[in-house]
Write a structure and sequence with these properties.
The chain has 432 residues and is of the alpha/beta class. The chain has 16 helices and 16 strands. The protein folds into two domains: 273 residues, TIM Barrel; 133 residues, no CATH class. It is globular. The structure holds zinc ion.
């Protein structure tokens, strides 16, 4: 079933060791072999939980990749194309790949760095065989951070003129980008990036991009905006759209860069959005928000922190309390053992949580233990991982809700993406 909206999962080298040993906490491979043996989210699920991947050129040497004309071949760990690099060839459905520069990387600069010149970027998209390439834009943000010369960052408010200059630069770059694309007869689909200071300037940018010949437009700097602000922008964009010919309207595609907002998806679709990307559901798995595991009913659960006993802060705090390293290791083991016993229904929530809190509070002195306790108890009592049929939860069991190292945390992130895609974007998750 094809969805009404395409979801691109942004990738920042999010791979994991498929044979990681959760009992001994050991990798199945050496670090040097990691890229070859590790797998992406689209490889671990029978049905990849996305329609495509968004990857920034900034991922590779900060975007300073060689061009063919320099006599050097693009070499991404031995792969010549982006689809080869992302290991997209042996999966169950074809995924599209969208490229951008990674405008967030240079948001604090006055303009995009030289190596993100439009012609160079277009050549890279072409050489690496991207399906879509976003023009070189500059984010219109309220604040930037600059080095104050004393190795500290100073927060600086951008003026209206500076913001407008960023918007204009994005329009100028988009113009050069599509002209170059036309001149060289390139094969990827060009996406014009629209920036704005408010709904009407966003709409003006979109209008200019359409006039240049773009049929696919990416709307940028949406991450800090509220749902209502995004909808206001889309409404203004629709005023522009409604003035187009029927054919142009039908062909126009809109992409929201960096946001998903599940509750507003229907409204986005009705306002003409055809695709979007967001890594927030993936990354929530390991951000300390208490919302780390997404259940199929839309409820978030806190993951259960079991830090490694060689964690520097943990060791330092334990020392202050007169706890030896051996004792610390025992406490860690007790946490993991109790979780396993709980999974096997051989112990109580209270016992597990006591072991966890005793150990975890050594890591963070200032945290509110009770607050955590309630969240941990809820996760354990409701056992949400048992209700999920995704490959992560089925194979990991309780470990999927354990906050510990990238192999558990990324698997939880992949699970979140699975729920987002199947339940919220397509509404077809297989639940009990
Ligand atoms: Zn799952």
């Amino acid at each position: 079933m094809s969805s009404t909206i395409k979801y691109f999962l942004p990738d920042w080298e999010d791979r994991l060791d498929p044979k990681f040993d959760f009992e001994t906490d050991e990798y199945s491979r050496d670090r040097a072999e990691a890229y070859e043996s590790d797998v992406y989210a689209h490889q671990v699920f029978k049905d990849p939980p996305c329609d495509g991947i968004l990857i920034s050129l900034a991922t590779f040497q900060g975007g300073k990749l060689p061009l063919e004309k320099d006599g050097l071949e693009v070499n991404l760990r031995g792969r010549k194309t982006i689809k080869g690099y992302l290991k997209l060839h042996k999966i169950s459905k074809p995924l599209e790949v969208m490229g951008d520069c990674g405008a967030f990387e240079y948001v604090n600069e006055d303009k995009p760095p030289k190596h993100f010149g439009t012609a160079r970027v277009a050549k890279l998209y072409q050489q690496l065989k991207f399906d879509y390439g976003v023009s070189v834009d500059h984010m219109v943000v309220d604040f930037v951070y600059k080095d104050n010369g004393k190795s500290k960052l100073k927060k600086i408010k951008l003026t209206q003129e500076e913001k407008e200059a960023r918007r204009k630069l994005s329009i100028y770059n988009a113009d050069r980008f599509i002209n170059y694309h036309r001149e060289k007869n390139l094969s990827f689909v060009p996406i014009g990036a629209a920036q704005g200071l408010n709904p009407s300037t966003y709409a003006d940018s979109v209008n200019r991009l359409i006039e240049m010949g773009y049929a696919y437009i990416g709307i940028g700097t949406l991450i800090p905006k509220t749902d209502e602000e995004i909808i206001d922008i889309l409404k203004q964009v629709n005023v522009v759209k409604n003035k187009l010919s029927f054919k142009q309207q039908k062909n126009l595609k809109l992409h929201l860069l960096g946001v998903v907002r599940p509750k507003k998806l229907k409204e986005f679709v009705s306002l003409g959005v055809t695709s979007l990307d967001s890594a927030s559901f993936l990354r929530k798995a390991w951000l300390r928000s208490g919302q780390n595991y997404l259940a199929h009913d839309g409820q978030w659960y806190s993951a259960i922190r079991v830090p490694y006993s060689d964690n520097e802060n943990l060791v330092a705090n334990a020392e202050k309390d007169g706890i030896t390293l051996d004792k610390l290791k025992q406490m860690e083991k007790k946490c993991l053992d109790s979780l396993q016993q709980y999974e096997d229904k051989n112990t109580t929530v209270r016992r597990v949580v006591n072991a966890l809190i005793n150990y975890d509070q050594l890591l963070l002195r200032d945290f509110d233990g009770n607050h955590h306790k309630d969240k941990y108890e809820k996760t354990l009592r409701e056992r949400p991982w048992e209700k999920c049929k995704c490959e992560m939860c089925k194979t990991l069991g309780i470990h999927v809700v354990v906050f510990r190292g990238c192999n558990r945390n990324k698997r939880r992130g992949f699970h979140n993406v699975y729920v987002l895609y199947n339940e919220m974007i397509n509404g077809k998750a297989k639940t009990n």
